[in-house]
Amino acid sequence: MMKGNVKYLGLILLIAVLISGCNLFGKKENKLIMLSVGKKYELSSNIVKHNTYGDPNDTKLTDGIWGDKTNASDVTWSGAMPEDREKNDLCFYIIDLEKVEQIGSVKVQAFQQSDWGIVIPPQITVAVSEDKSTWDEPIVVNKTPNTELQTVEEFYDFTVGKAGRYVKVTIKPHHTWFWLGEIAVLK
């Protein structure tokens, strides 16, 4: 009788270990590391920041906090537009990772609130550099803004797979305000 109980106890323990996710076989879990948290960035000189939802200290987009898609008034959103909306110049942000890092991907969160005149960008590109003067070929993600939709949260995902210290995120606006919640540079 005792041997049967030990078998069942062993089986129960094995099931408990498997359910808990304990790593018995030495496999490493693939956890993403956000390299950009707390890192400084600079903006192109043609960016006009929103008075209320601006980014006065240029820290919001790398604070590790995603914008709240259910709350258009959430202060984690950083609003901006090109100085000349008719020209619709490209706007960019350059994040300094402070040292050369292996960059796996970049994820940019954008938000649309049509009745406020905020529309997701039709294009965002990402480029990487070790010296901030020579940039790799930009990776392009295009989205089609639908201004019929009131509230939209959109993620722009870029597979990078390169080493670099500087990450340049270039926004092609939709002739109006664009709001970003976070620029995440991931290992």
For this entry, give a set of tags.
187 residues, 8 strands, Jelly Rolls, 1 helix, mainly beta, globular
- Under CATH at level 1, the class stands as Mainly Beta
Low-confidence parts, pLDDT < 50 over ≥5 residues? 16-29
Secondary-structure element pattern, one letter each: HEEEEEEEE
Total number of domains: 1
The overall average pLDDT, rounded, is 86
Can you characterise this structure?
28% of the residues are buried. Mean pLDDT is 86; it is low at 16-29. The chain has a single domain (30-186), classed as Jelly Rolls. The protein has 1 helix and 8 strands; from the N terminus they run H-E-E-E-E-E-E-E-E. Strands 1, 2, 3, 4, 5, 6, 7 and 8 form an 8-stranded antiparallel sheet that branches. The protein has one helix spanning 2-20, and strands at 41-43, 47-49, 78-82, 91-113, 123-129, 139-142, 151-172, 178-186. The termini are far apart. It is mainly beta and 187 residues long.
Question: What's the helix and strand layout?
Answer:
Elements: H1 2-20, E1 41-43, E2 47-49, E3 78-82, E4 91-113, E5 123-129, E6 139-142, E7 151-172, E8 178-186
Antiparallel strand pairs: 1-4, 2-3, 3-8, 4-7, 4-8, 5-6, 5-7
Nutshell version of this structure?
The protein has 187 residues and is mainly beta.
